[in-house]
Design a protein that fits this description.
6 helices, 13 strands, two-stranded antiparallel ribbon, 9-stranded mixed beta sheet, globular, single chain, alpha/beta, binds flavin-adenine dinucleotide, 2 domains, Rossmann fold
Length: 250
């Protein structure tokens, strides 16, 4: 099976982010970058499917030279090769267009993504690719099985699970719970340095969105008190929701 995994490089969740002098972008000074955590799930799923069904896993990213580091992390997990689509400042649609252009000639059987990148939280790359490549797509996947040319994705929906079947090739965006991503071993980190990374120059169309301003959250809103008001159960649920959906720590 020819599996393609889209990965993005994002600031480490523990990094202190500052807005750059232009007031419209993130100041990269002192920021540690990592492989997007949801993309680790996508890479892991790709590796498991490759090992089961044979084939290879290619990881692809759109970004500057420094984004190669995210590819190396995915290669250290076990991916076979990488593709860097070199590009500068881009919005999500331009990224999707460049990904689609690079992916189309590769004819993958399966395209895996994270459900969202934790920096811009767009959650739009999978649906955009679906439209641009005219392929079926399942978002927030917490389960995936492949049987011949049919993929079955279990999706997280409000209050439950939904199972859908997709004709392959198809696009699947990974949600927490899909699997437990492996930690790269030291020998695999060393091996990853020798794995091939192909470089392509991305040619974006004109941007359709522009960032007008970027600000840090209001410090006064940094603390939140969840009142129990006699219903500790409801308060605990609300706290768990806030930690999951807003603080994104669980
Ligand atoms: C070179 C470069 C420069 C940028 N400059 C700016 C800037 O100046 N200002 C700004 O606000 N934003 C910038 N961005 C961010 C960009 O606008 C998008 O927001 C980002 O690439 C996609 O994030 P998203 O939150 O929309 O993705 P989501 O839709 O949340 O991501 C879902 C999944 O899509 C895949 N994916 C996302 N991004 C990429 C990628 N780049 N390559 C491969 N797979 C990906 C991953 O699997 C991810 O888990 C830049 C991006 C790039 C690549």
């Amino acid at each position: 099976m020819n599996i393609l995994v889209c990965v993005s490089q994002v600031p480490d969740t523990t990094t202190r982010i500052n807005v750059a002098a232009d007031g419209k972008s993130m100041d990269p000074a002192g920021v540690k970058f990592i492989l997007n955590p949801y993309d680790e799930l996508a890479v892991e799923e790709g590796l498991r499917l490759r090992d089961k069904h044979k084939g290879e896993v290619t990881v692809i990213t759109v970004g500057a030279d420094s984004a190669k580091e995210a590819l190396r992390q995915a290669l250290a997990m076990g991916a076979d090769k990488g593709i860097l689509v070199k590009a500068d400042k881009q919005d999500s649609f331009q990224v999707a267009e460049m990904l689609a252009a690079a992916i189309m000639p590769l004819n993958p059987d399966l395209i895996l993504l994270g459900k969202q990148s934790i920096d811009f939280d767009g959650m739009e790359m999978a649906p955009m690719l679906s439209e641009l490549l005219n392929l079926p797509c399942a978002t927030v996947a917490v389960g995936l099985t492949i049987d011949g040319t049919t993929a079955k994705a279990e999706k997280e929906v409000e209050g439950g699970r939904e199972v859908i079947s997709l004709t392959m090739p198809c696009i699947i965006a990974a949600q927490k719970g899909l699997n437990d991503p492996r930690y790269p071993s030291l020998p695999n980190i060393m091996k990853a340095k020798q794995k091939p990374i192909q470089e392509i120059v991305g040619t974006p169309s004109a941007a359709r969105t522009a960032i007008v301003g970027m600000t840090k959250p209001d410090k006064k809103r940094a603390n939140k008190i969840v009142k129990a008001d006699g219903d500790a159960n409801a308060a605990a649920h609300e706290l768990a929701r806030l930690l999951h959906e807003e603080a994104k720590v669980i």
